[in-house]
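Progress note, project year one: complex with uridine-5'-diphosphate.
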Amino acid sequence: MLLSIVVPCYNEQEALPLFYKEICRVAGEMKASHGADFEFIFVDDGSRDDTLAIARRLHGQDARVRYISFSRNFGKEAGILAGLEAAKGDYVAMMDADLQDPPALLPQMLDALLTEDYDCAATRRTTRQGEPPIRSFFARLFYKIINKMSDADIVDGARDYRLMRRRMVDAILALPEYNRFSKGIFGWVGFKTKWLEYVNVERVAGETKWSFWKLFLYSLEGITAFTTAPLALASLMGIFFCVLAFVMIVFIIVRTLLFGDPTSGWPSLVCIVFLCSGVQLFCIGVLGQYLAKTYMEVKRRPVYIVRETEEDDLP
Ligand code: UDP
Ligand code: MG
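Model obtained:
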């Protein structure tokens, strides 16, 4: 039984050695308890620090360590994809390098797949403590909106930390899209998932790469990738405004017939023009978002470009 551990790393020079130490400890225990063999795949996402050098060094010391290094920063989603494609294991786990996904949960996750009839053991955090309240608010809002609009089940608080059976990994790799929103992809492929809950922990070293703005763009990515509901917005608003206009026309005709026609109300007219053109621009913008995504998809560019892997590092 081979377990692949996929770890996307971007500027993780402080955290990576600590992570490696911890995962080795857990791997040792699981070798004894489950007879599991391991491979660790570090995906260096174009780091500008010594992450790659550390991965090389670890590979030199330990044949279980493999690494893939990108030609530039392609984002975490690309790292996940590269890791899943490279993984050879019967079971594949994904976790962050910052020890926010405690490797100590792995035995429990593997037990869920071995003894219970699950294809995947995933984790979600129970609290959003330690997070700015405004960020929590928007995160909750995002999950509410996307779950209403899309048929992929996207769980609030779910982390990317999960252990999957080979058949689920193959299903994920069969999705060829360029815009990869993996939280949605995991939900979309289905399979039986066991959710383990744990309390959020702070990263051991380094700092988070997600600003509020990055998260906001990421949420838009998720929405455009997993639902086309916003495209119906223009039609719905169009109908609404037509009905409204009709009512207003009737009202104005009746009022003019009853009370004559004083020329007034141009400020309200300006407001209405502004509102309607705002709505129109917004709808064109939504359309543009989908068009842009489609444009990127039809270009068929690779999701990532590899600069170096451990196989190039032959003596
Ligand atoms: N990461 C990556 N590429 C990026 C950004 C992040 O591979 O462009 C990795 C990062 O090294 C870490 C994981 O994704 O292992 C999660 O990132 P981070 O801890 O910054 O996110 P947070 O835990 O704060 O959501
Ligand atoms: Mg983190």
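The pocket of magnesium ion (ligand 2) is lined by residues 96, 98, 100, 203, 208 (CB under 6 Å).
The beta strands are 2-9, 37-44, 65-70, 91-94, 120-125, 158-165, 193-198, 306-309.
No further modelling is planned for this target in the current period.
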